[in-house]
């Protein structure tokens, strides 16, 4: 079915079940092949891409809404979601639907709540929903053109991740259970947007005392097999309470 | 006029001019007499206190709405406002208005956007609006009982301030133009919720190179008159871009 027909079919029910003027957009990050990726959709009959988004049911908390939306639109379930900013300028989305009737649900003004999600890449199998033709991981270094202000929302999510790297369990959620120090360093480098000194990084990470060195190595590379680590969850949570930065 | 009458009078117009289901609550911080204070209102016919709040006009950005609300409800103008969190649980406020008719604007479900504001205490003259009997500064150590989830909103604002102390111009907005090192240290101690070592604090602050030592001292105390400082705005902004913490 073409997009126009689907939207018009959904419009009437949407006015009945959702809170008007309020939407949710999700920025889902995953880490794979030494690259930070984001989950994006391509809407039917559209040349541009979008973040997975949706609306809040009249009898639903915004956190429950974000989880439900992500599951329906991408198949991603049971993941770490965090609200990070609200996008409340005028004319964020109204123009996008200018060729539709004014009664269309999607054409009203929406104030959108941005959530970011950090997922173990290997555990999410993207699923195409009824509004989309594609649901894919894209490297944050090669992002496609986005609809509306979705690029701005993505940029703010990445900036938030950068600031929160010292407060939130970002490494824990993005990496697989077992990882190497070069992988952890690469993740920090991508999020912080700069190269880090290997020696300093190792020293600081070990000083936090949040990693378990495992009795295993990563096999298969051309170089000496690097040691594998896992997070010591309890110590990690405790350290994050104080912030993973130098104390005052 | 009693509160019930005022609310019922306002209800009809509110349905016409505001976005439904969306509100704004502001946590306004000021620093005075070595105490961090917050601006609170007492509604007419009410025993509990509230944060200054209001609604978003249909043709208004959320940032403009927050500024307008703060001005109307407290008289505070032209101040640093920052959204920090959205409060979107069910039954945040509905019960509070349970004795009113269901058509009352204020009785609907509201998802509320929290803003915090940092003001120069000496420049705000609290003004009582038509809904309130009081508009006062209260020390954060002696807060009164709040209505609805306003205490929770306050707690989240303070927690945000604590985390953002390394990224945002918090000192600059809260202190008067000229201040002493003990005043700056006291502000950091209150926000961080712990005593800091005087020598370490001075050393770190001076190392950031964001302060101008003035050729003046604070007169009037029993002790040796302490030196006055001001922020070097340009250096301060530059330092904040990297975060006022140790670099990786």
Automatic annotation (TrEMBL), chains A, B:
Which InterPro entries does the record match to this protein? NUDIX_hydrolase-like_dom_sf, NUDIX_hydrolase_dom, WH-like_DNA-bd_sf, WH_DNA-bd_sf, WHD_NrtR
* Highest taxon listed in the record's lineage: Bacteria
Please report the stretch or stretches of sequence annotated as the Nudix hydrolase domain.
Answer: 19-162
What SUPFAM superfamilies does this protein's entry cite?
Nudix, Winged helix' DNA-binding domain
This protein is called: NUDIX domain-containing protein
Q: What's the source species for this entry?
A: Flaviramulus basaltis
